[in-house]
Amino acid sequence: MKGALRAWTWLALVFVLVAPASARDRPVSADYGKVIIDNFSSHQGMAAVRFDHWFHRSKFTCRVCHGDIGFSMEANGTKITAETNMRGFYCGSCHNGRSVDDGESIFPACSTIPNLRGGKVCARCHSVGNNIRENRDYLSFTRNLPKARGEDLVDWEEAEARGLVKPADTLPGTPGKDRALRAQEDFSIRSKGWMPNIIFSHKKHALWNSCEACHPEIFPSVKRGAVKYSMFEIFDGEYCGLCHDRVAFPLSECEKCHTDNVRK
Amino acid sequence: MKRVLLAVFVVLVSAGMVSAQTGLKKRRALPFEFGRVVLNNYSEKAGFSPVIFDHWVHRSKYTCRVCHVDIGFAMKAGLTNINASDNMAGYYCGACHDGKMLSEGQPVFAACAKKPSPGEKERCDRCHSFGKEVKKKYGFAEFTQRFPKERFGNGIDWERTEAEGYVKPLDVIPGMTARKKALPIAKDFVLDARLESMPNIIFSHKKHTVWNGCELCHPEIFLGVKKGATRYSMEEIFRGQYCGVCHMNVAFPLLDCQRCHSRPVQWRNEGNP
Questions:
Q1: In this complex, which of A84, A87, A181 lies closest to B258 when CB atoms are compared?
Q2: pTM of the model
Q3: pLDDT digits 0-9 by tens, A183-205
Q4: Exposure letters B67-102 (e unless 16+ CB within 10 A, then b)
Q5: Contact B28, A212 (CB under 8 A)
Q6: Contacts of residue A78 in chain B, CB cutoff 8 Å?
Q7: How far, in Å, are A255, B45, B64 from residue B60 at the CA level?
């Protein structure tokens, strides 16, 4: 009896230690950048919303949605309601039945009109748990886009550099974005341990984000070294980790940031 | 020894959790919510909903100076410590909201009552509206429909809105406040940005004094009147001090870097001496 109990204890300990390590499985590439939004949907008897980043980011820079329109970078953080959508905010900034993309009018988000477009409009977003056939298939859309190392994830930087995607940086009718600031020179951020230092490029980031997607909310400082964070916070989804590992290239690609080969 | 290690571990983990105030991108106020102040010094204790004060209506009718200098409101939620008796005595909100003063030919509804009767609840709800569905007198979209637009904040270019005559904010409340003779205004001047790559700031006293006079900023927010005497940087501004007192939550927000950092940078390698 005593021996059996000991064996069970060891087994339980092994499970406890191993299980968390396997919880960070990488999602399949079509699911990378997926956001499930359910502030109010279930409450109202609708399926939760599934938002996939990959299609929108091929059309617009991050700045348009996370700067101009003002979406939070946290699932359920924006508190989008049908009312705000119908008033032309958030999703409704484009999904209003009038704005045109690729020659077609963009379907309206939320509506009080019963049975709009055959009743199929709501389910295009409120799709969690339902077997909805997507209008656009991830694999066929991304077939000819360059991929990141060894994975099916798209290398968006390369895709844009080659002109395969041309994300727009403004929405028609949004005022004020004609005063571009010149990006700072790349600079080095010291890494704490034995890893190479990071070379941070404002130029690459500002192409998609300008200043306002990151400053001052994510990085409340413009003085290097003033905001203290480490890989703990980054792995936890803060600072760099707000985008990288969720939507932008994952943190497993260490060598994309830790590139400064200066002898430490 | 083990206990010491455990204690150290717990302290480190909790320190990490506590410092997680930045590094995130939370929800941003929508144009009609920008400039909203929630006041709850005493409301809930007295059995009322907290007060929601939206800046946009008032700023279209009065300059910042009238409320923040003449009447004396603080510039931080909760700091003014407004209570019903002060209002009823004609201070703070009660300076205008007294049931008698006229605005656009109509008397302004009185703020607070000693013992509001059930029929008066609707009047209380006009301000004590947090969490309630209260029909407002002015709808943001209709009110601002023709105003010139700008990005961020209220989505309105308030400067142009006034310059083009869509709003005419009063700088004096007749019978209540007075202005002395205006002082001459300093010329626009340049403030150096610390980062070489950022354009310098062109600061315009002229634009600011239209709304603020001298006394709103000096000496409380900006102690010195000599350029360079008050030392501050974007760190303090992002924390809501100095320029950040207004340009975080009410005036155009700090997201719009180019509105202040507007002096074109002279780059040496672009053919300039």
A1: A181
A2: 0.82
A3: 788 988 988 888 899 999 998 99
A4: bbbbbebebeeeebebbbebbbeeebbbbbbbeebe
A5: no
A6: 27
A7: 53, 32, 10
